Amino acid sequence: MPKLVLENKNIVVVGLGLTGQSCVQFLLAKGANVVAMDTRECLTLSLDIPVFLGVLQKDKLSKADLIVVSPGVDLNIPALKHAASLGIHIIGDIELFAQYNTTPVIAITGSNGKTTVTHLVVEMCKAAGKKVLMGGNVGVPVLELLELEADVIVLELSSFQLDTTYSLVPLVATVLNISEDHLDRHGDLASYQQAKLNIFENAQHIVTNRDDSFAQPSGSVLQGVQSNKPMSFGLSASSSGFSWDTQNQNILFDGQPFLNSQTCMLVGQHNMLNIQAAAALAMVAGVDHSSIKQAAIKFDGLPHRCQTVSLFNKVRWINDSKATNVGATLAAIDGLRASTKGKLVLIAGGDGKGADFSPLSDSLQNSVQVLITFGRDGHKIAQLKAGTLEVKNLLEAVQTAAKYVKGDDVVLLSPACASLDMFANYQERGDCFTQAVKELAA
Fold first, then answer.
1. Active-site residues: which are they?
2. Does residue 122 share a domain with residue 232?
3. Co-location of 282 and 216 in the same domain
4. Spatial separation of the C-alpha atoms in residues 288 and 107, rounded to whole Å
5. What angle do CA 402, 353, 269 make, to 5 degrees?
6. Mind listing the pLDDT tens digit for each residue in 383-418?
7. Containing domain of residue 111, as a range?
8. 3-state class (DSSP) for residue 387
9. CB 277 within 8 A of CB 209
10. Confidence of residue 96 (pLDDT cuts 50, 70, 90)
11. How far apart are alpha carbons 66 and 52 in whole angstroms?
């Protein structure tokens, strides 16, 4: 039974991207009185409701019965903080979804790897013949899923979405890992961590990364789940759950060989962790072992996530533009180093979002032979390794890398930074890299 009464309530929707627009339509269908706001000064939309653009209007927010914010809207905006101080409930689309959803949910968050794991879980469910839907931080706006029939819904959830979610009851949930990200929004690592860990609060079952202390649920959460012994994954040895056999390059389950990495399209230890996490989630959700293995073997990854874009002259060029934080870049470096026969050349830089780059230091010294940096905060990364080559832009970075490589070398674009200082998004940055690499062979 829904906890929120929406009919005839005065509700303000803040943020009019695809998520905000889906919220408007959902609330109108529930009989709410809806107005919308967006901080952009100019917006072309056809909505049959009052729309206010520019600075958020404090007086209108203060009179609302409920405020629904899009994930990209900072909750620290003064007008929203004032409304919250008055006791006005501020939620997001995931909370609206949770109030009305009756389909089992697999919920996934983490600093890195969550989109890959989400797609892997979907493919594993499909291989088992399940009718599966995907949404949240990827795919269609989650409220649109309420109108569709499915055996299971797989949700990728960001810290921003989890900040305003309280009622979601996942069948199984995981926090893949936690490393510094979005500190410009959350303020500090502890606040970011807590937002991520919210995913465990009402979960029936949980899957944990036993090697990441930041990603562990609290004792009270463990007492609330159906099993006090969560399914775990990791690179460390374990007689239960999923683990990694370095010598034989095998994923193990309960200490026994489960899947050999050489049969998989995905490469790198970080992707072996992604497969483990997805397998654990799917297994808890009732997917058989054969379907899990079949999907893991066939899955060839996602664009801009450790994606091989060229093998020109036996040099492997990898587009990992989605690595917008330090943890993602560390995972890429550490995952590729063991399988790289020649030099590893790293291209990094962009908008660091206030992050501390020092955790990169050891990997840059020990695993990266050539470091090339660019962008707003490229010089900060360059300070971590003597002899770093600093360039003006990504095209120059690719051209410079080409001068230092030969057969069996790997060139990795893994920026450890956001892209907005030079590009519209990480996709455009990855496409720019790919195009520049293709031009080398022209």
1. 114, 137, 182
2. yes
3. yes
4. 19
5. 55
6. 999 999 999 999 999 999 999 999 999 999 999 999
7. 95-298
8. coil
9. yes
10. very high
11. 17
